[in-house]
Amino acid sequence: MEQSATNRSNRSKLSEPHCTGTRSFPRIVEDLTAESNGIPPTRADVYVRSRTRKDGSIVNSRAAVVVERIQEKRNESSSSENLSQNSWSNDVFAQVKGPERRGLVRCVGAVHTRSSFFSERRGLSTLFSTTMSRSTCA
């Protein structure tokens, strides 16, 4: 019972909580890839899906602001110039949320670290294919 209270307390401190429950981010990526006929999603797509409830509402006002900014950036990039979606340092998610800090890469799950992506300069398709192979091998 004490652990449950601690978890509830820690969860309430999150500023932009996800509403995916026990579904992992690699699983969300797999679902989004299947929905788009094999095209891997961007980190922005994963963020939006993980902060959107089943009824279509956004989890909270702070996450709603981020989702709005993501949509604005997508509209700007599609109308002005088409930025490479494989660039982690300059994708829509990085433009809205800022550069990655030390440690894990946001919106891809706990399997990957920053160094595994940025040092090897992997693209999104490589990232998500390795994510899927690791998550399905268990």
TrEMBL record:
<dbReference type="Pfam" id="PF03004">
    <property type="entry name" value="Transposase_24"/>
</dbReference>
<dbReference type="InterPro" id="IPR004252">
    <property type="entry name" value="Probable_transposase_24"/>
</dbReference>
<feature type="region of interest" description="Disordered">
    <location>
        <begin position="1"/>
        <end position="25"/>
    </location>
</feature>
<protein>
    <submittedName>
        <fullName>Uncharacterized protein</fullName>
    </submittedName>
</protein>
